[in-house]
Amino acid sequence: MQPTILPGDHILINKLVPGPRMDWLCNTEIASVNRDNSYRISGYRPITHADVLVFNAPYHGSGKLAKNWEIYYIKRCMGIPGDTLSIVKGIYGIRNSEGSFEVTTPANKFIDTPMDNEKPGMFEALDWTLTSFGPVYIPRKEEMIRLDSINIHVYRNLIEYETGGQVSFSEGRCYLDGKPYPYHTFTQNYYFMAGDYAIDSQDSRYWGLLPEDHIVGKATYVWRSIDPDTKKYRFDRFLKPL
Fold this sequence. Notes:
By secondary structure, the protein is mainly β. Helix content is about 5%, strand content about 35%. Strands 1, 2, 3, 13, 14, 15 and 16 form a seven-stranded antiparallel sheet that branches. Strand 5 (about 90-95) and strand 6 form a beta hairpin. Mean pLDDT is about 90; it is low at about 30-35.
């Protein structure tokens, strides 16, 4: 997330965006065991474009989508539910009910890099690269989407996470646990996350859309900062807004 967040920064998180998650109401097993159920109290506003969010690592050590309760990521939200997101020549573009626009953040500053031909493994079949990506539609809670040979690569892991079943695709048809499954109704909102230092960021370009139940809250301020090399306080970063 450099230059927005530097090594040695300590940050404050506002859990009222999108609402505090009551993890203590979940099954209290060992933290390294994934628990896929959570309860969230309504927040004072929803997540929006360019919010910097803290969330559970979605795929750490596994090809399956699941919460990792020991590892947290911090990234910037580039796409929200209802958006159709594309990356063209390294620039994030959004199309939704309000029109089409670019998301202007530090993540746009990676044009003409060696990443131009790098294809993330999850989307290799779609021939997407890290700087030419999508379009991908970001689903909303309770929205039904027809599954096809393109979007199955985007939604397969999300469907398996929500249903606990096994998704397959054969001869133009989608199956769940061996039974025809042409549509899926999503049970939660999803988001597209990106790091500000985009040339070296494990984000949604690699692992896909983030479920809302992984999100802890919005990073708001650097409350203090210590240079990891000199061990000196960086007072110019104290209370720096994010």
